[in-house]
TrEMBL record:
This is NADH-ubiquinone oxidoreductase 14 kDa subunit. The chain crosses the membrane at residues 20-38, 50-67. It comes from the Eukaryota. Keywords: Membrane, Transmembrane, Transmembrane helix.
Length: 103
C-alpha cells in the first residue's frame, strides 16, 4: 500500500479560514435572542432597541470564540497527524531494515 504524498494530503496548501462566518452566525443568533426576549415581554420586536446591540456584540464574541476553538483543535489534530506520519515512516524504515538484515 504505497500512498503518494498527494494522497496523504502533505502537499495541501495551508487553510486560510476566516472568522467572518462564525461571527456573522453569532451576531444573527444574538439578534434573534434579543428579538425573542422582546417578544416574550410583549414589546415591539422590530423597533430599534439598545439591547440588540448588546446581544449582537455578545453573539459576535461567542462566534469568534467558537472559531478560535475550532482553529486550535484543528492545529492540534494536524500536529498529531504529522507526529503519527513520522512515527509510521520510522516504523516502516525499521521494518525494512530488519527485513534486509534477515535476508
Amino acid at each position: 500500500m504505497a500512498e503518494t504524498t498527494a494522497a496523504r494530503g502533505e502537499n495541501r496548501a495551508p487553510s486560510t479560514r476566516s472568522p467572518f462566518l462564525s461571527i456573522a452566525v453569532g451576531v444573527g443568533i444574538g439578534m434573534f435572542t434579543g428579538m425573542y426576549s422582546m417578544g416574550l415581554q410583549k414589546r415591539p420586536v422590530l423597533r430599534p432597541h439598545f439591547s440588540y446591540g448588546i446581544y449582537s456584540a455578545v453573539g459576535a464574541f461567542l462566534g469568534y470564540q467558537v472559531f478560535s476553538i475550532r482553529e486550535r483543535r484543528r492545529g492540534r489534530i494536524l500536529e498529531r497527524r504529522d507526529m503519527l506520519l513520522e512515527k509510521r515512516a520510522r516504523r516502516h524504515a525499521e521494518n525494512a531494515k530488519h527485513a534486509a538484515e534477515s535476508d
